[in-house]
Please model this.
Amino acid sequence: MVVEPFPMEDRRMDDLPYLMRGRKAVSTESSVLISSSKFLNDGRIRDWITSENLRRNGRDYPMTYGIPALISAVREVQDQERIEELFNEARRGWPELDKWLNERYMSTLTKDDVKSCAPDSVGGIFYNYLTSQGLEIDIVTRFEPKTSFEYFFLRGVQTHDFMHILGGIGFDYLGETVPAFMKFGNLFKHFCPELAGALNIQNTLLTMPTFTRTLLHYPECWPAMWEMAARGQHIGETSDPLFLPRYEDYLDLTPAQARIKFGIRNVVETDSTELSDIWSEGAQSAQRDAVKLAAE
Model:
């Protein structure tokens, strides 16, 4: 089928290709791009979606570089008051959630705190990751959360690395797929769709473009990435609420013991290190080598 680029108003309906029928012209006096979608209206989000879906991975542009700007844009676009209402509705019939939101526990864990953990424990695996990558624990500046939504976000940042360990996946680039889909599955299981959707918007904008990028440029990684997404989703939707536990109090447990403790189910240990090096065009191994060289 050939779609001809003529204005639809200049053509009879019978002449229009079937897939182009039903289009209605909408007039506006706006001098800038405007849509019924508040996400499409935000130039920062439009730029993120376009770039992240279509670009290749390059060492000139760190994978995390655009994330702070995206987070800021999403927070400005989302209806904060409505999200708070949804949290209040959820906590009324959920004592554990109500207590969790009232306490607003924030971790003060440091790298030194996990230095003495056994190598095969959650804390030991976490410490090895931090030291091998030359990282500190806080990747987002700590702040005093004023709302349930802010607390949920900040606490999620603090527990993200534990989702890698307990989800049976490494800390490589493709490994991010598993905890991302654990979050999708888990939040839609334990919250109403509107709240689960609101809490997954940032997760969606960060995760979904990587699938398009993979298929366009790194198709050899696609089957594994799709498999990890399915596994993460299954873990999330069959597990207890992943956001409630104080994982920091049980870092001496092995991952297997911790999964039993926290009700994390259907985990399949996966190693995507080699594929991540293909996907990152060598950036994964280059980063590892750079950290080793700096430590020598």
Notes: The chain has one domain: 67-295. DSSP finds 14 helices and no strands in the chain.
